Amino acid sequence: MIAFQDPLGQLPPQASTFAGDVDTLFYFLVWVSLASFGLILALLVYSAIAHRRKTPDQPALSNVTHNTTLEVVWTLIPTVVVMFAFAWGLKGNLDQQVAPADALQYRVEAFKWGWNFYHPGATTASEHLYVPVNKPVKFTMTSRDVLHSFFVPAMRAKRDVVPGVKQIVWFQPTVENRAELDAQGQPRTDEFGNLIGGFDLFCSEYCGDGHSVMHRKVYVVSQEEFDEKPWDLLPEDPVGRGEFYYKLNCVACHSVNGSRLVGPSFLGLVGREGRHTDGNAYTADEAYIRESIRKPMAKVVEGYAPVMPEFTEAQLSEEAVGDILEWLKTLK
Amino acid sequence: MTTHVPAAETAPETGSRKEPSYLDVTKGFWSWAGTLDHKRIGLMYLIGVTAAFLCGGILALLIRLHLWTPTGAIFESNAVYNQVFTLHGVFMVFIFIIPAIPASIANFVLPLMLGAPDVALPRLNLASFYLWLTGTIMAIYSIMSGAVDTGWTFYTPYSLQTQQAVVSMGLAIFTLGFSSIFTGLNFIVTIHKMRARGQTWFKLPLFCWAIYATSVLQVLATPVLGITVLLLAFEHLYHIGIFDPAHGGDPVLFQHFFWFYSHPAVYIMILPAMGVISEVVTVHSRKPLFGYKLLAFSSISIAVISFLVWGHHMFTSGESEFVMLAFSFLTMLVAIPTAIKEFSWVATIWGGSVALTAPMLYAIAFLIIFAIGGLTGVFLGTLSVDIHLHDTYFVVAHFHAVMMGSTALAFFAGVHHWWPKMFGRMYNETLAKISAVLILVGFNVTFLPQFAMGSQGMPRRYATYIPEWQIYHQWSTVGAVILGIGFALMLGYLIHSLFAGRKAAANEWGGVTLDWESPTPPNLYNFDDEPVVTGELYDYGQGAKH
After folding, report:
1. Which of residues 83-102 of A touch B (CB under 8 A)?
2. Parallel, antiparallel, or unpaired for β B425-426 and A281-283?
3. For the whole model, what pTM was predicted?
4. Cβ–Cβ < 8 Å for B198, B533
5. Which of A12, A25, B196, B295 could form an SS bridge with A153, CB 3.0 to 4.6 Å?
């Protein structure tokens, strides 16, 4: 078997069982493309120079309009190449489509704009995914609102999340990759607030204003670490839990530093006074904030679009809303 | 280096023409606005689609400038970015590129190539232009009344939930669709009924074959788009439950309907471009087209297969394995006639008397970028690889290579090729060559980094991105600025030539098809005497056996 080297160095790290096969096929196509592109370019450039018109009435060197052998050859070679790629891609895709029966089962809910990941046996959702290395993991995905798409480049795995249907995607991670922690044990971030470490998970089907912030992490850990349920991060204190629920559900649209996103900032929200789109004044007390979570369309703050989805009790319990309120009070 | 017959010296005296040219025969606003002359309608379309290209191009530059930094450099919110990329897509796809070659260049050139005095249905032709204008005005109204932020694909259920003016934009596209159907219908009838005496089907220039294949697609596929946007409007207004899962509908059904049109639409864009390239390559190589019949049949087979590949836009949507198998296989089949065309053009240039004129440079730029677009298409047709590349910048770069780098470049190759015939004046060729090179370089600087970051997983339609990809985005933006300079230069010297360009020769490039036998610029009814085809097609004096 020819080893197709990485000619341009452009694919992400290979972190799943089928990544290697996808990449080999990709590099095969890259080499075939470079060869045929090089050939075309060379012929064009040579011809443009060697056969250029030097005198105004110079006739062509030849008036040949046919060469059956040549035409058959340049029909057959592309046919063989694309049929080969087709068959190889089909075989690789069968692996991508069919999850092993013993795969660990996850539930995923996508919404505008975020992901709720339910780890095996978990009742609370998590912000990021934790998967054990060398074990197949399978995700059954639903959407609360519009199309989204679950995409982990390092795993070469992608599947649209379609409202009204259960969609399935799976992979078997082969490389461990954890969050980088700072001296206090907190995850490190870059200057833009992106977490460092872990594999990137993106939404790849356009879903509106928060499309590009549905960026999460897939942490691949050892079986021992996985058995300790690293995803179970729900803090003990109400304020900490409030912040946890915020990161899970609200972070795409509401900032905590006063900057304007899709919705109003949470900084100094409790007790804030303002106007609604219908002109009525409001004061953001507890009852108002509860209503804004359960029935966001009832009253919309002036200057903002009426786009917030409703959060039902199934998605955010009364207790969780209470925790969020406790946490909001600390944002001054 | 490059030489062609210095036109001014060999040009016949303008006083010697029997009739005034179509530009001089009547004057005034209504002589244009109410004209039935295919050449004037073609020119009105040319001005219209160029203006649309300018708008879409400025939006593209704004997109690229915004992506200079990971958090977005210019728009105040992601919502504005989403509106801008949607408008870029709608302008470029529906208002510029679908009508670009058929309605402007083919409108002007096709009857000339057939030796006909006009198209078969001149009133329908004018109606098509006014439908296009109406659709464009409706699209601009939709923008004014609340910018659409759905992307040019209008995927449900997002397009049903967004507050923006989806209904009026949908009706705009419905109207533009009819404009396209009228043009296609007209050309089919014209090619069947209006050919010169002696001009059999296999003496039709390849541009006519390409336009014929395009017209069939326009007439057969566009109604599906019309139905789809009407259903979308009804769903939006009355919640009838076809596409909206909240009312029992299926959002993926919309994708099937949409791509059943919009995939053939890709070939509505590229087939006429292939026709233009065939003409430019043969004339400027002074050599008959290599594999004429194979080129003609490959146009038809591409048109037929293109109806059967739409499902490759939905490989990640949960199609069954069997459906994916079928669509992947059929998609691969399209690659074969496409490769044949590329090789045939290169073989035509090979051993020719190659003049590196401005149209030829645009055509060579097309051949280079079309090869990139075609080859990267095979990656996306390959199932397991597509799963990784789907909805990333790799796709963005691929379809820009086909639409912008190929169709738009072929459009400009055609504009430069027939410009002397259209206006009787020549542009500054040195500037034209500089602009062709700038555009070729600019294109690759813009889109090669996009192939790279797409392979790494950068999803499309992102207003913000992770900083690892910043360097690629910045190169891409630099390329877009080079492209912008190239196009601005082109606009400048083309407009300048209308007023100060030297007089073009009757047959500026030495073409041998009927379009070059008409006076320059043509008469109102094109020819002094009714043309008759006797010799071989593309015979540059050395014979040509097809």
Report:
1. 83, 85-86, 88-97
2. unpaired
3. 0.93
4. yes
5. A12
